[in-house]
Amino acid sequence: NIMPSTSTVSSPSAMYGVRKLAQRNKTLVIGVSAGVAMLIAGAAVSTWQAVRATHEASKSAAITEFLRQMLTSADPSEMKGRDVTVKEVLDEAARKLDQGSLDAQPEIEAYVRTTLGGTFFALGDFEAAEPQLRRAAELSRANLGPEHRAVALHLSDLAMVLRARGNPAKAESLFREALVISRKTAGPADTITAVILNNLGII
To answer: Residues near 199 by Cβ (< 8 Å), separated by ≥ 6?
Structure first.
């Protein structure tokens, strides 16, 4: 299991938090009020982690605004009174990202995609989770360089999804790559290194 960390904006705490949150809300088709409450809680956790990790108000504001827009898509007045699913809200958020809404802020986009991917994962939609976490890893690598602790975290998240999708060989490869980076950047005694080792041991 992914454990929370406060290392960077791209820490696994986003994925960890939304997984725990969604596991307590397994029903996918829900009333608007319940769905929005769940997502607001996830948004609050995500934004708090971003502030704590980066201490940069501008990044926190960008994350908050994107998540606010995501929640607005579930507004009852815009849904013509019908129930909306969590997946519909997440799909719309992913569509906005794919259209380039955060192109100018790759670090923020990586964090938001981690949040979306983690939520999809928690809801059991591994197919939808994979492209979000894969893109988060790509953005992190391009923005921070190939040997950064955040890259190890993203690769580990992606490996978890691939394992869940029945691709243990590729998952193992990514876990091993993440382990090398984590040992080099964070050290062998770091919590994240231990988590990756644990995940690798249950392939």
So the answer is: 156, 159, 160, 163, 175
pLDDT digits (tens, 9 = 90+) for 19-31: 544 444 444 333 4
**Separation between Cα atoms, residue 156 and residue 133, nearest integer Å:** 10
Say how far apart CA 90 and CA 116 lie, in whole Å.
7
Integer Cα distance of 164 and 75 in angstroms: 33
Residue (of 139, 117, 115) closest to 129 by Cα position: 117
- Distance (Å, whole) CA 148 – CA 164: 25
CA dihedral 15, 49, 105, 146 (to 10 degrees): -60
Averaged pLDDT for residues 115-133: 92
Neighbours of 142 (CB within 10 A): 12
Averaging pLDDT over each range in 37-46, 49-58, 79-88, which range is the top one? 79-88
Q: What is the DSSP annotation of 64-78? A: HHHHHHHHHTT-TTT
CB 140 within 8 A of CB 108: no
| Look-up of token digits 């059991």 | 124
Q: Quick count: other Cβ atoms within 10 Å of Cβ 189?
A: 8
Q: In whole angstroms, what is the distance from residue 160 CA to residue 25 CA?
A: 21
* Mean pLDDT value across residues 143-168: 93
111 burial via Cβ count (<10 Å: 0-12, 13-18, 19+): buried
Model confidence, pTM: 0.69
